[in-house]
Amino acid sequence: MTAVATLAASIRELRKDYVLSGETVHALRGVSFDVPEGDYISIMGPSGSGKSTLLNLLGCLDRPTAGSFLLGGEDVAKMNDDQLSETRAKRIGFVFQSYNLLPALTVVENIEMPLYYGGRIDAGTRDRCVELANLVGLGNRLDHRPSQLSGGQQQRVAIARSLVNDPRFMLADEPTGNLDSVMTAEILDLLASLNAEGRTIILVTHENEVAARTARTIVLRDGHILTDERR
Amino acid sequence: MSRGWRTLKLSIKSLLLHPLRSALTVLGIFIGVAGVIWLLSIGEGIGRAAEEQIAGLGARNIIVRTIKPSADEVQDAGYGLTRDDYIRLLATVPTIDKAIPIREVSREFRNGTRKFEGRCVGCTPDYAEVTRLEPRQGRFLTDGDLINQSNYCVLAAETADRLFPFGDPIGQKIMVDDHFFVVVGVTKSRAPSAGIGGSVAAEDFSRDVYIPITTMETRMGDMEVVMKPGQFQRDLKELSQITIQVKDRDLVLPTVDVVRDTIARNHTLADYGVTVPLELLQQAQTTRLMFMLFLGLIAAVSLVVGGIGIMNIMLATVTERTREIGIRRALGAKRRDITQQFLAEAVVLSVVGGLLGIVGGLLCRPISILIRGRLLEWFPEQMATLPEVVRTVEPMMVSWSIPLAFAISVIVGVTFGVYPAIRAAQLDPIEALRHE
Ligand SMILES: Nc1ncnc2c1ncn2[C@@H]1O[C@H](COP(=O)(O)OP(=O)(O)O)[C@@H](O)[C@H]1O
Ligand SMILES: [Mg+2]
Question: The domain that contains A168 carries what CATH number?
Fold first, then answer.
């Protein structure tokens, strides 16, 4: 590669320690890698190896103990709480293993929710949310509550919600972890099409079949990168 | 849609997810706010009634009244206020505007075969104004009547109606003792004045006959003989009362001292008392203020209890909604957004409670009148034992109590909502998301 691809993110010597009742857990012990714009990365590794910790840092949900994390050129490690919130609201789409929808809100209201905090609500908002619901195949479930949907449908609502601010950078922590193989395939198709639009996607998974559909796989062990291979 | 409006809608929505809990919290504030308004209204009603009674005696007046000393102190020369006292007062106290010598005796009034027991009052023309008697027919006594010692009289409303049930009493004659008096006027009936302690007893003006005091002196003398079983009692006094009206309210208190000195100089017996309605009025106002403060304190306590209810609910809510907070934070909510959301919920609860409380407060008068009516119907004996003021109190809405109550409810909401709201915002997003 001679052409320098623009970097969506650049991670250098990232460390994260948790202090739990006096004992320090080194969840990440110095992780470095670059994420070019439009990359599709899977992160694998045994339980407790630091995958979620890494994804939370990439999602600006937490701050590293040491190291730097440049997101589109800005150092996230130096941001204050409000700036982190703003980055989450405007630039990052996050999909959780357990969906994390608000049970009291309808499908459309759940999709719309991040806009409250991005401050971009206008007359066209609802139309855009309906469009997103259509995109994930839930156009006929707009006013349902999460409890009235299957797991795969709920995860699709969560993906639609993560798209509402049109983020270039998407993160998913075991998005198919709770789903059967049919639904897993649906979700992976959806993510693949989002990646095809040019969005950068990083997901955490246990399953080789899931990792096989991504462009690059990073394997973690004990807070270190074991392998980093492009397919 | 503005940001504030969205926050408000969101908070109403969250509150409606737990309707019973929200309703109970609102109830706490409702009781507090309605309580503030009720207590202030009732306090105001009682206070006003007391002040009106006292004001009825005249704020510019000083009332000097004869008190009968104990039997062994009474001398043959008689007791009580004298005409000399009256003359001296007029001559030596320059701040006096009017002074009225009054002598009251019990008499039987007759018109042919009709008889009526009442009070015969010897007085001067100013009596009508100072006592606030208004003519129904004819006129009141005049200076001419006084100088001529005329046998003219003015009847109180009930006296007139009882002695002359059919015809017009003006120009007719009534008999008192063995004297004829020509009726020159009839007064309108007037609410009785309440006794206010001291030497001033309750006065019922309905059974009176007013005659010039000069005529009374000449025709009836100063001696009353009261027949009791087995004995006669002699009662010698010149005047029952001197009512003084001072030129200006501010001059009342200095004048009282001069009046006391002037009379004391000629009295060795404690056979008179001085009552100053203005002093009583000021006392009543202080008492009322204390009373209102006390009631306000009670209401404030109930509001604090309501506020603690809000805080309790909100804290429980924060724990219960930890996951929701985590989700919102993860999706970009700032600490400030979370604080605002929870604060808005607390304020909505207390404002709704406050508005309902104001409505409840406005119903104070009709409801309390209704309740009193019921109580009078069901427990007439017990009600009769209550003090007059309590039995007849009409709650008076205090205009400032509404903004006050509303402001208090908002303040309670904010005060007791701030801590839970801050607690909610301090939650770490990742920790909150892990919460089950
Ligand atoms: N909030 C936390 N407090 C303390 N220790 C934690 C916390 N989160 C994760 N850890 C620890 O950090 C290590 C990495 O955890 P995690 O990133 O969740 O692993 P994975 O997602 O790969 O299973 C584990 O040993 C875990 O116990
Ligand atoms: Mg994990």
Answer: 3.40.50.300
